[in-house]
């Protein structure tokens, strides 16, 4: 992506009660992109977002919006009218849906006659057309968050900050709203920063992903890149790469490496995509959705890695099941309800787990491999 | 029992006859307490907003003082205001002791902490993220204050009712700084005290009933405003 930088942060630091809660040396937000922030509670996602939005003054550092510094109070107040934010709690006013959606326009002094068509257009885009005169008190969680999103989009913000906007919604409301938001973000080309705990939401909405831990960004990159090439076990766990394996490189040829797995597993060879020196110890990861289970070794030649193992756990996850296996090493796989019954998966069942060499990703921080 | 019925009958009679003296006392009570409440709304809400929106050292102490002020004994306020306005006192040159202005001042001192304390509680009860949300929608500082007050309007109206109720029914300060002068500073409460001490129970009852009707009417109007804004 070679898009222009819209918001630029340098050496941001935030202290609270004497302790540093955020330190971000450099972060650029590009025009039209959706940047997702992921990380556990307390990692600093909200603090970073509030700081980027100019709603929290950093103890040190610089913010530039469209190449102009946001230093004075007047700069920040001006910036506040060009961005907006949606929080986890919809924080609606005690007024009707229409009045809520119009509230930002009203604060900008836009006359009622001009507000109305915009309010109606955004209400219908977010599925609120029939609710305009309803009191915001009498909305479901999903409707309330849709109202909050309409109130934000009607301002045509240059940056939209979304701080865990779906966290308090039930699964059904969440799915519908994630879809609608994804569609609207794509249609409008709105630049957005989204914080979330859910890798599915990030995968659905974001172009780039930043994983945060203890006030720092530990990895920032394209969505696929971070999902498939987490730099360390922390990021791997956070982006859902559940199986991590340590091994020693035996051969490395044509971008393909063969590994001998470590940890009490004799003579198990694994093929992975990547470059490494023979003899080097590396850490590789496999995402559960890339693992296929069958009753015997698949003859398909594109599947180079096949390991017999035993089911240890079957965990229902709503639309699918997570299977934990002991193949001499820990391995997890996702299967559908249909596969579950066809393969009669239950603890103790012997199966073969297979995955392509291209699904095995070399984690970059080789130093960490030694720590494990 | 007969005394109460007699009082009720007398009150109705005085009201229906539009007795000029009773009418004067009633209007003065309403005027004095109304103006005192208005002053208290301005000062009390200003104080509540300032404390709610700012972080400063000693904030907890200020809140504790405001809450203590909600229970200020009117006679203590009366004593201080009297001393301050006394002929040789620091504000004696104003010459307002034993005038309605003095009663207004004393009542404002009583009602301001009530409205400030309850107002602060109302503002602090708003969702913690609301302030940031309003700023994120592009509000200026005055717009932020206005929207927060509007969101807290129900408990704020309750605060105003409590302030008005506190001063319309108060007697200690009014008698001390007003002097219960006929035709000048005699209000319903001070007149009731005087008539009771003279043994004129019927008149005292009549004045009491008028006071109750007045307090009820004003609160009924405020309650109507409050509940109307709730239903929607």
Descriptive report:
The complex is a heterodimer of chains A (372) and B (232). With 372 residues, chain A is of the alpha+beta class. Chain A is built from eleven helices and 20 strands. In chain A, a hairpin with a 7-residue loop joins strand 12 and strand 13. In chain A, helix 3 packs across helix 4. Chain A is globular. The relative contact order of chain A is 0.11. With 232 residues, chain B is mainly alpha-helical. In chain B, helix 1 (2-16) packs across helix 11 (201-230) and helix 5 (100-124) packs antiparallel against helix 9. The relative contact order of chain B is 0.17. The chains are: A alpha+beta (372), B mainly alpha (232).
Count of DSSP helices of chain A?
Answer: 11
Q: For the CA atoms, what is the radius of gyration of chain A?
A: 24 Å
Proportion of helical residues of chain B? over 70%
Low-confidence stretches of chain A: 368-372
Structural class of chain B: mainly alpha
Number of E-state strands of chain B: 0
Q: Report the sheet with the most strands of chain B, covering strand number, pairing sense and barrel closure.
A: none
Q: What series of H and E elements makes up the topology of chain B?
A: HHHHHHHHHHH
Radius of gyration of chain B: 20 Å
Strand order of the largest sheet of chain A: 6-7-8-3-9-10
Amino- and carboxy-terminal Cα gap of chain A: 35 Å
Shape of chain A: globular
- Major pleated sheet of chain A: 6 strands, mixed
Oligomer: heterodimer
State the shape of chain B.
Answer: globular
Strand content of chain A: 35-45%
